Amino acid sequence: MISKxxxxxxxxxxxxxxxxxxxxxxHVTEDEGTDLNFxxxxxxxxxxxxxVIATGDSMIGARIFxxxxxxxxxxxxxxxxxxxxxxxxxxxxVKRLGTIDGATVLIPENPCYAPISxxxxxxxxxxxxxxxxxxxx
Length: 137
Hints:
Low-confidence stretches: 1-7
Distance between the termini: 24 Å
Shape: globular
Radius of gyration: 19 Å
CATH topology of the largest domain: Umud Fragment, subunit A
Strand order of the largest sheet: 4-5-10-6-7-8-9
Mean pLDDT: 82
């Protein structure tokens, strides 16, 4: 089934409501479905969300690349395993939240980088949880 995606400005694009196999082509019909608000789909909590552009290569294992737009939800609770945007000693960083030997660490998703251990005197805050990644193809 094909539906329409609506942007906040009212722009719509067609949206195929089904899976998209990368092998044989599925049969597609021109059935009209309900409209889907594109902004609400990608940013379900706009009141507590913001976006940043990713830089660097420390998160390539999580398929976050330089130039990607990240949507961050400040209202979502960060849990172990969440990808977060954090403030660490005056700098923003995007890393996976984890623990090593019971201590909280920020884990890059690139084997070229070591986990960042947090110290008691660090100026550290989690600013939000990454909820979606967007890139132009």
